[in-house]
Design a protein that fits this description.
The protein is of the alpha+beta class. It has two domains: 158 residues, Periplasmic binding protein-like II (D-Maltodextrin-Binding Protein, domain 2); 130 residues, 3-Layer(aba) Sandwich (D-Maltodextrin-Binding Protein, domain 2). It has nine helices and 16 strands. Strands 1, 2, 5, 6, 7, 8, 10, 11, 12, 13, 15 and 16 form a twelve-stranded mixed sheet that branches. The protein has a two-stranded antiparallel sheet with strand order 3-4. A two-stranded parallel ribbon has the order 9-14. Helix 1 links the parallel strand 5 and strand 6. Helix 8 crosses helix 9. The longest helix has 12 residues.
């Protein structure tokens, strides 16, 4: 739903967008505008919405060359600060919490924010793993070090290699707040992968090894190539599969609204305003849905 964050008291609303790559033929976004790398507005994102920002930039430009167009910020507040300060022209981020909203309302710049997509926290394993479903209680027990082998859950006899996210990231905070695991069950300080014997003590990315368990955002699935990771299986949680339908209707375990924001002062024909309108248009939503986003 489109909203002007507060009533334009001496306040603010929301977000930011991109630029810098090789010249190329303009891409017609909705029949009335076109973008090149030089004219595309810079987009500020957080780690949680970087995949969504990349999908939008690639779809609107019609090119995979988007270097310099996406600005990654450590938090939603930092993304809005970048928009306010003119570092970017658009923000793609999860809906801000009440504290961030209050800070925006105390700012001297008004923003427009519209929800356009949803995302979800999903769990993945090696495609050859016989596991197909976990409960929320299973996940908490695994990441608390109380369940260390898939056979304890009725699946194959193989140690669980549980991958975690980097401390302080949005996805790690969401995971911890949702499942509240007790990490003291592990013998070594946790890095990015956890096993019962703590054999891995330095961060490594999810590599889809046999017996693996990891988590990511639904929007990130398209970035996990078969060439790099092999066949990945998305696990059902509480017997509910992550899909456009279950994410949109809220039956999946954890979902979040993704919003696009620009300055309220953007001119009707500015590139940021035109991209904003395209994202919210019927054609834009169709293109983004076909590119892998869950569109509201």
């Amino acid at each position: 739903m489109r909203k002007l964050l507060a009533i334009l008291l001496t306040a603010g609303l929301l977000l930011c967008a991109l630029c810098a790559c090789n010249k190329e033929k303009p891409r017609e976004a909705d029949g009335s505008i076109s973008f090149t790398c030089e004219t595309f507005p810079k987009i500020a994102v957080t780690g949680a919405t970087e995949a969504a920002g990349q999908i939008i930039a690639k779809a609107a430009l019609g090119s995979n060359d988007i270097s310099g167009l996406i600005i990654r910020k450590p938090s939603v507040k930092a993304a809005y600060d970048a928009l306010k300060d003119g570092e970017c022209s658009m923000v793609i981020a999860f809906q801000p919490d009440s504290q961030t909203v209050q800070g925006l309302l105390n700012a001297d710049t008004a923003f427009e924010m519209t929800e356009f997509s949803k995302d979800a926290l999903i769990f993945v394993t090696n495609g050859e793993n016989t596991a197909d479903n976990l409960t929320a209680e299973n996940i908490k027990a695994i990441y608390s070090g109380k369940i260390n082998n898939w056979k304890e859950l009725g699946f194959e006899d193989r140690e669980i290699s549980a991958f975690s996210a980097t401390e302080g990231t949005t996805i790690k905070n969401i995971f911890d707040n949702t499942f509240n695991p007790d990490y003291s069950g592990y013998k070594q300080p946790l890095s990015v992968i956890m096993t019962a014997n703590g054999e891995y003590t330095s961060p490594i990315d999810y590599d889809n090894r046999p017996g693996s368990l990891g988590y990511c955002f639904y929007s990130e699935l398209s970035t996990k190539s078969v060439e790099k990771n092999g066949k990945i299986k998305v696990l059902n949680i509480n017997k509910i599969a992550a899909s456009n339908e279950t994410i949109l209707n809220g039956s999946y375990i954890w979902t979040a609204d993704v919003a696009v924001s620009i300055k309220h002062s953007e001119a009707v024909d500015s590139k940021a305003r035109l991209l904003y309108n395209w994202i919210l248009s019927k054609q834009g939503k169709t293109v983004l849905k076909n590119s892998g986003l869950v569109i509201s």
